[in-house]
Amino acid sequence: MSSRRKCENSTCKGSCIKDKSFDEIKKKAEFLKQIWNRLKEELRPPEAEFTFLYRNEYAPLIGTICDERVRTEYAWRFPEWLNSKLGGITLEKIIELGEKGVREYLEEYFKNKWPSGMKKEDREDYLNDISGYIVDAMNFLKKRGVTPITMFENREYKAAEVYFMLRQFNGIGSKKAKMITKYFLFTSMDILKNYPWFDQIKAKNPEFKVLGVIMPPIDVHVVKVFCRIFGENLRNWNKAKNDPDLIQDIEAFSQLAFPDIPMIIDEIFWNIGRTYCKGRFPKCQKCPLNEICDYAKEMQASST
Question: In 3-state terms, what secondary structure has residue 71?
Fold first, then answer.
């Protein structure tokens, strides 16, 4: 029988690091630096693949708003599809359509693209929410006389400043704002070669760049990988991501591993979580972190 611990309350409450020495924690942090040196060479977020997002100033914002509860690829393709339907995406056209018009286009586009397990009421909520967010965003920009590109000036920004600017948009929650800020940071530092929203701003404002420190967003993948490398396997990862003790532990660990750019931890854990560290059937043998993963080691021991 496996000795693997399983938290009865579905959340860590810090238990996954309680029996670890600082040297053990530091060793895992050091290993992640090696992983990052390999991973960053292949870094390319999904939205960077779609050329239309580099050509229309509203497309990156609309794609960002759409990117929740549906497949990322479909979310980022929607702006180009909408552009073909409207004969061009402009602020005026979106506002004229209104929520009802945008909802109709979203419904037409996603007709055969919904996630297989998504309930009808959840689809309705998505259509209502996203259409409202898109129109709200256009009205927000119109009121201020800017676009998603010209809202940024020709200067250096602190990461926290960009984060709070993005949070002004309905439809861009804390996670999305941190993700965009992260990619702005990575592109400013030449870690990432291209990013649509950043590249459009940079083309207009050559001095634009984003620097500074901001904590990583904490999602299911981050929580899952963090807990498992310390030997904890939980029953409810969605519940665990809201555990305040666990969030503090992850943020502290991200600063230990990457003091200058704690956001890197999100990029590593997100990729590992999505590709290898599956919820029910993790691919431990193929995972690049299995050397430091206590959960993987316990799984291997239990199968022999």
Answer: coil
Task: Tell me: do 68 and 119 sit in the same domain.
Answer: yes
What is the structure's pLDDT at 234? 87
Identify the helix (H) or strand (E) that includes residue 168.
none
Which residues are within 8 A (CB) of 286 and not within 5 positions of it... i.e. 6 or more apart?
A: 276
Tens digits of residue pLDDT in 192-219: 999 999 999 999 999 999 999 999 999 9
For residue 108, the enclosing domain spans 58-148
Residue 180 maps to a domain: no
Please give the model's pTM, rounded to 2 decimal places. Answer: 0.90
156: helix, strand or coil? strand
Tell me the DSSP string of 238-279: HHHTT-HHHHHHHHHHHHHH-SS-TTHHHHHHHHHHHHT--S
Q: Cβ atoms within 10 A of the Cβ of 135, count?
A: 22
3-state secondary structure of 84: helix
pLDDT in tens, 46-105: 888 899 999 999 999 999 999 999 999 999 999 999 999 999 999 999 999 999 999 999
Residue 164 counted as domain residue: no
Task: Measure the CA–CA gap between 276 and 296, rounded to whole angstroms.
Answer: 11
